[in-house]
Request: fold
Amino acid sequence: MPGYLTKQEDIAITGAADLIIQSLLDKQQFADPLGAAEALGISSAAWPLFGLLWPSGAQLAQRMASRPLLAGERVLEIGCGLGLASLVCHRRGIDVTASDCHPLAQQFLQENARLNGLSPVKYRTGQWGSDAPAPANAVQGQFDLIIGSDVLYERDARASLATFLDHHAGDGAQIWIVDPNRGNRSTFHKQMAVHRFDVIEERLDHPAQADVPAYKGRLLMYQRTLTAA
Reply:
């Protein structure tokens, strides 16, 4: 036994076929026998968060299900968790790389790809705000679109996430963040502005409908202001 319990669900994604997703059974699961998560600063309370399905992740997956395909576009998902948005991209043939800092994220991502008859998804370790040396499989290079959901859940006084995004955003890149109104949005806008990123906010609020729960949040779309040659 791996030390934690899991479950499988059919997840409906508006604009795409359902996905079979394996997730942790609940927020009470925890297993870190070798201290790998603890060494990364992941507490026992935060440990299961990667392995749960979050409403903002579903919102991001729906957006990626309907986004027009662009030839040669490279996409990076940060804080991918179970990789819902990355799996939608991968199934559409998009060149996507999923990333997370949790030591089990890759294992769950690839199992979910297998459950849906998909080839393995490209994966890299993506971590910001840590003083630990970058691992050998850290995110490398630049991307045309960087996506993430519910990644503004903590105050980031050092602007680590904004710096990470600036480093991996190519010329003309867009950054899409789905944020469930966590309260750190305004500060993050200012941190991104330091790197010349302008933002457009789109409300995603909708009431509960049939089997779809209510949601309140925003899609934050950043684009760098290019300087004149």
